[in-house]
Amino acid sequence: MRHVLVVDHREGGPEMILAGGDVHDKSILVKVAVGRGESEVESWSNNARGRKSLLRSLRARARRARTAEIYFAYEASSVGFGLCDELSEAGVNCSVLAPTKIRKSVHERKRKTDEKDAERILEVLRGHVLAGNKLPAVWVPDMETRDDRELLRTRLEVSSGITSLKTRIRMLLKRNGLKTPKDAGESWTVEHWKWLKGLAGEGSELGFGARHALRSLMERLEFCEDHCGELDRAVAVLSRTERYREQVKELKVLKGVGLLTAMVFLTEMGDLGRFSNRREVGAYLGLAPAAFESGEASDRKGRITKEGPSRVRRVLCQATWARVRTHAPEKRFYERVVLRNPKHKKKAVVASMRRLAIRMWHAGLRAAPADCGSASPTSSTGDPFSTRCRSDRR
């Protein structure tokens, strides 16, 4: 059953406390209003003491208004979901909004202040609570999911660092007019490493500065590769926990999907039950085409939106290429799309990525734990003040 927020608009009914916050590392500026009343501005330090003072102020306003309903909203940012956790635990209806989905005019974008940002968030919240407008809220993951994401995101960052270091080594050699000899073998093999170490040593054909630069890059590359191995082992341990074991097993059945791809998908997607259908999955991952339709132009689509977690698109792209090479049905699908768009092969890759993401979603749902362990104060249905278990969405 879908829970719907019901607001009492009767004459003399209790008013609600509505607050929009502009949250920064060191400060929280809040615009507070009682129902449809004028807003007032308050400012607090973003620390434990300041957040407690903010909560006391909201509760004091609620007592004066003789209501227990307090609604608070702020934009998602690098400060994370800590404030949302504290307010929700204290009984405040808190939601985190997606900045990219809050409409701003050109005039508003050129006249940006903390107070105006807080006022805009307040009006969006007021429109939702009092008029039922859709709230551009993000899903707030539970603490375990956030912690698991830290490991997988660090693993991907280290991998990107390795790629960057290898590119810098190749560019250094290219600037100095050096090419890999045939007896050095393929790039980054044991023989290739021996050749590079010889170049970085004394008496090589490289100059003094280039030798030291190459040695520094190689040392950093070796450290990153060792660190990447440690993180891979940690990911493997995490994948064997009860939280992920069955889902990872189910996802790895799909051709092209390895342990890292499966874990990145599960941690970034979070509660798979919050998606109602494949269109929502494609839209969340940014694999849906943008639309530019108006009037007679009723079928005008653009490039994919690239919204949502880019990390998932990255591993999906890698898995898709592996899948196209090793899975005959997927290869036939890819070639059929390429045949229709010979000059736009990327469309075939994106189509295969979307197919794979949807298959992974279905597989993950089949193996998901039966309990609703990842419910949070913010759902993806547009009403962040209601929660729905995975079993309710099938």
Strands, helices and their partners?
Blueprint: E1 17-23, E2 27-34, E3 40-45, H1 48-64, E4 70-75, H2 82-89, E5 93-97, H3 106-110, H4 114-131, H5 143-175, H6 190-200, H7 208-239, H8 245-251, H9 259-269, H10 278-284, E6 289-291, E7 301-304, H11 310-326, H12 328-340, H13 345-367
Parallel strand pairs: 1-4, 4-5
Antiparallel strand pairs: 1-2, 2-3, 6-7
Helix pairs in contact: 5-7, 5-9, 6-7, 8-13, 9-11, 11-12, 11-13, 12-13
Query: Helical region count?
Result: 13
Helix and strand element order? EEEHEHEHHHHHHHHEEHHH
Q: How many independent structural domains?
A: 3
What helical percentage do the residues reach? 40-55%
The global form is: globular
User: Using only CA atoms, what is the Rg?
Assistant: 26 Å
**Major sheet: size, sense and barrel closure?**
5 strands, mixed
* Low-confidence regions: 1-13, 372-394
Fraction of residues in β-strands: 5-15%
**What class, by secondary structure content?**
alpha/beta
Mean pLDDT: 89
